[in-house]
Amino acid sequence: TNDRPLILVSGKLISHVLTRLADRFDIKEIARPDAELLQPDDRERVRGIAASFLGVPASLIDALPNLEIIASYGVGYDAVDAGHAAEKTVVVTNTPDVLTDEVADTAIALLLNTLRDFNRAERYLRDGSWPDGPFPLSKGTLRNRRVGIFGMGRIGLAIARRLEGFGVAIAYHNRRPVDGVPYTYHATLGDLAAACDTLINVAPATAQTTRAVDAAILQALGEDGVFINVGRGATVDEEALIEALQARTILAAGLDVFANEPHVPQALLDADNAVLLPHVASASQHTRKAMADLLVDNLESWFDRGEALTPVPETAAISRKA
Ligand code: NDP
């Protein structure tokens, strides 16, 4: 008999995941997290899932009677039905910490690009326009800004630490204040938006945060307002954001994430006051390899020692030994 657990690799993951998994596990790859893509005997054999950003729906969990663990690639696991996994005593793991600095670096780059229009300035140079005259002065600047961070967690804190070096005022909103940080806490997102002109979203996508950044929040930032999103598109009312950009009730937005990825509304593509990135905040070879290692380390630890390394809170109580 074969005692190598069968791991379902669902969606596209970097080759490092497959290379490492092959040392210890049998592998079955499917393009999408859809049980229809699996033969009945494979469904029976699957004990773990290595899950891409496409996540894992309840229907796939239900189709795999011997599933023990879902190791998800990325720290945000909103695409995995962790509540359903917990009910089925399936542990879910994510990849916290190893991507924190990369995502914080991206947030700062996106903020500066949005304020200073560097992407368009480079296009101006490459277009051959420079000899005709200097690139127009940017409307935006980081000088004198009051920055609000929605989601002062691992990444939010790393963004705040970087911003300290820029000499801007820093405030935040979480459900609870964080002990030992010097930044101003606001108990509601509305209070934070009223107190700042630059809002950075890095909160997780949950039922509570869905469309939390709405027309009123954007309005509160003011006409010099800037919205940066490195969290999730679901946290923003994208139509309200488009309206605010078009009506120029805010100055600009910098977005790494969208409501319906990889599809980006034409109105955002057309907006000259938006900087748009294709969900690349953690996407360096260095950091994606570290995420891949932590994903595989979770599976190995589970099957070798009966404990996951980085289970998500919903499934933290589940252990294989129990
Ligand atoms: P953490 O869990 O460390 O931080 C999340 C923070 O959000 C916590 O401080 C939490 O505080 C706060 N929060 C959660 N729910 C709410 C709520 N309902 N209202 C207000 N605040 C809330 O996560 P990370 O910092 O590691 O990651 C944050 C998110 O960033 C991920 O979930 C992911 O979606 C996104 N991300 C995006 C990437 C990209 O490629 N663009 C890359 C990596 C992450 P409290 O519990 O007190 O409310």
UniProtKB/TrEMBL annotation:
Residues annotated as domain D-isomer specific 2-hydroxyacid dehydrogenase catalytic: 46-312
Domain of life: Bacteria
Stretches that traverse the bilayer: none
Keywords: NAD, Oxidoreductase
Residue stretches making up the D-isomer specific 2-hydroxyacid dehydrogenase NAD-binding domain: 108-281
Entry similarity comment: Belongs to the D-isomer specific 2-hydroxyacid dehydrogenase family.
Protein name (database record): 2-hydroxyacid dehydrogenase
Protein species of origin: Tianweitania aestuarii
Taxonomic placement: Bacteria, Pseudomonadati, Pseudomonadota, Alphaproteobacteria, Hyphomicrobiales
